[in-house]
Amino acid sequence: MNSVILAVIxxxxxxxxxxLYSKYLARRVYRLEESFRTPAxxxxxxxxxxxxxxxxxxGHHFTSVAGAAPIVGxxxxxxxxxxxxxxxxxxxxxxxxxxxxxxxLWASARNKGKSMGALSSRYIGQRGANLxxxxxxxxxxxxxxxxxVVISNLLVSTPTAVIPTWGAILxxxxxxxxxxxxxxxxxxxxxxxxxxxxxxxVIGDRVPVELPAEVMGLPAxxxxxxxxxxxxxxxxxxxxxxxxxxxxxxxxxxxxIGLGILYGSVLLAAPTIVAPAMNDAVPEGTPxxxxxxxxxxxxxxxxxxxxxxxxxxxxxxxxxxxxARFVGYFGAVGxxxxxxxxxxxxxxxxxxxxxxxxxxxxxxxxxxxxFVEGGGNILNAGMGISPSLSATIxxxxxxxxxxxxxxxxxxxxRFVVQEAGEIMGVKLGxxxxxxxxxxxxxALTFNAGLDGSGGMLIWPLFGTTNQLLAGLTLSIIAVxxxxxxxxxxxxxxxxxxxMVMTVYALIVQLGTFYNDQNWLLLxxxxxxxxxxxxxxxxxxxxxxxxxxxxxxDEDVAVAEVEERQSR
Length: 567
Description:
This protein is mostly helical. The protein is 74% helix and 1% strand.
């Protein structure tokens, strides 16, 4: 099959979802109200709560949610064939991810920018909230530690990506000052920023930076990991407009242009997809497609981490409630397009089926490396970009996606630690909470040795934990809609599907971990499985109460206004 056909159908489906389905959700389900006073205005402190231009906020949201996962997941999942991965990414983006991300933004904005952990206490109950916080903490810990390892490995394997990776921080600091302090025109700042970033990519390709094999007794990747944690700690406590937001915005533009280059190369080169649509000859040890496909591809179809970003940072910067459609749903569109690009790169970027099978010789043998290699071949064939520069562009894309997710993850984990401290009666400032986050993440990352392999220790549970969190977020949204007497079908059907697949996957993984005698993952799997079943019961009870009870006092005025608007 020609990859152009797959690209055109996939992009068309995803963009049609934004044009049609997101408009339905905004008007008929969430009923976004332009006059609603968002937390960014009501609680403005110019540190976390900052009214933000929707295009700038989209850049922050898109790059924060689109880490390495929408590359890794699809580029691993094509081992079952490209067709199941394609269907899950396209349909998941349209009916699952966009609805989930916009809904989480709406839910948090309607509750003073509170996180999903805090909202679970109000809408699900305190027992569910405590379990929710445990799941959130584990998920963010996995993201922070694993992405630090992924980035450090890419910086070692692709030294041409070092200059653009770190130079992007300086560019972001300048952009933050230009937008907020000097009030420069956003279009001018955007053009200058993108030119600066791509100039860094060209410079990086010509001036690779390699650390010595050992620095003060530490291997090179360990040094990069420590530097990444230092950066993330600083970024998490600075005012959001100074570094985090402008970095994400300009990275979002650069990364979207990178996607344009990839898709443009696909159109020009029109490579053939050499991988089978359905792979009946998977390598030995490959788990079953159902349910593992639906947790292997999380980001790019639906991801609980998105709800954390939506309610943790994005909702605090929402200028108008109606911006939630562009920021939330179109942010999911961007990630879906990245996941689709990863599928094409990992299946059409090889000359023959034998070349593809050599890469996919075992489950989890694909991933970022397959994306960079396959995508680099397509860029070279389509636009004549040299193999070295192609690898630099794609490796930098992967690093910047992962880095923006990592620094946002540290900020979100800081919020979680502060919330947990309040529950225990301990008030932690942002600096103290950040120290706790970094110490725990470093301990996990280096617990198995200085190579940082510990950072990937609990990563096999990321998919199930992430999808569990997505289901929990949807349950909160469903309760809020029930209390407002809205149509919950667009939320409840995806919620039920995600919950069933997640529990099924947890049970399947139990057998795998037991057979491998991986007792740590076995115990954690049991904990997450129990938490899943417990919260499902709690969420069901909460929805049942919301269905029977009259509209809550605090929701009466809102419900009346929204009912008038819907007529």
